[in-house]
Amino acid sequence: MVWFDALTPKQALLMAMCKFKFESLGYDTVLTTRVHDCNTWLLDQLNISYIVVGEYGGASREGKLRASLERSLKLFNVINDLEEKPCLHVSLSSPDATRIAFGLGIPIILFNDTPHSIYVNRLTLPLADKIIVPEAVPKEAFSYAVSPSKIVHYGGVDEFAWMKNFKPNISVLDELDLSVDDRIVLVRSEEVKAAYYPRSGMVPTLIFVRKLLNRLSDIKIVYLPRYEDQRKFVLKSFHDVIVPSGAIDSRSLAYYSCLVVSGGGTVVRESALLGVPSLCLFRSRLHVNDWLERRGFPIYWFKRVNDAVDFALKVLKKPDDYRVDVSSMIEELEDPVDVLIRVWGEIIG
Q1: Percentage of the chain with pLDDT > 90?
Q2: Which of 5, 21, 87, 300 has its CA 20 to 30 A from that of 159?
């Protein structure tokens, strides 16, 4: 029995791919998740079985702590009551699950590509047997939490696991009353409630949307919020922006977009792997994004929103000039799920 835990949409996709792989090797599996964003929607789309345990604690320290403590106890009950004790726990550094796995004596392999997530990493990485990290991120970047000897590098990015065989579905355009002739800009909001995100000032993606609309009127902007309060704010502030009422196939929408913009990293890496021009407005450069950019994928980081808008205008003027055929570059990437299987094989001998 292998136990996977997924806290976010990205983690849901990665753990789903891991689950498929282990099941193909004959393992029984269990996947736990929580009420947050579109986690369960994504797993349902993949026809994945899962157990919902707990929920997201919100922006405050007190809320995060309470939700984590409550979820940890519930996870303990779920895992401890299984007929078969898991022989392995895998997550993208889930504090709740990692603590329970450690306490129950279950070997732990973690994925991690976010050295900036200091609090989570200090809670999880020291408890892991091995940590699988893209080679883009220097092992020393995690030195505040764990010895480099525990880190296993691989030549790829996490998103490759679920994007390598991805086939876009054009029906997503019908859902949003869009067409292939529209100049679509997909925007994903920042993770503003994360512990590592600053709490002051207006978020860059909203500034970007406002400035872009002031420069262009014949575009279709689709804004994907992470939280209900974000959705309400955008609907109130921008009457000409499309805000889906629920979860959608964002990867297919990215494929049919001229441009993808995000305050985080996952969505722009997904779209860059499709060859779509992708702008990251995260507060600092990300190792994995820079690694993809150096290899020719169309992913760009902008510190200043005005510079991002200027670049977006160039892309939207001639979208085809900025789209990249990534087929040959994709073949050079390593799948993190394959690395997980190899690392597990080394642990069990």
Answers
A1: 92
A2: 87
